[in-house]
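Proteins fold reproducibly. Take a tokenised chain:

. . .
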Amino acid sequence: MGVALWEDGKPSESVAVLTSLTNAHPNMKSAHFSLATIYAHEEHFQEAAAEYTLVMRLDPNDNEALVAKVSALIGARGYRDALESAKEYTRREPADLQGHLLLGTVYSELGEYGKAEEELTDRKSVV
């Protein structure tokens, strides 16, 4: 119901329903993931990153949540926090170009341009 409300253009109601659901069922990974995704779409990046972190606590191997967390942290300008998660994602998924793009973006925002260039241009070995 929470996602349906968001799709109907009612983000506040959607967040309220999903927050209530996650409070009642704190181990419901799908509810936390949906809430995080809605926060991200609404550009509430800090909240999105916090919810994706909860998803990762419930399932440390959830790569979809990990890469989404990196994107949310970049949106929140939390580049230092995003760095380790981005590195972890590219270790887990070395062939995923999105992960390298995100890691390159983080390096660039941190002023580490050589590392950024390496991530963004030297992907021949990945493909």
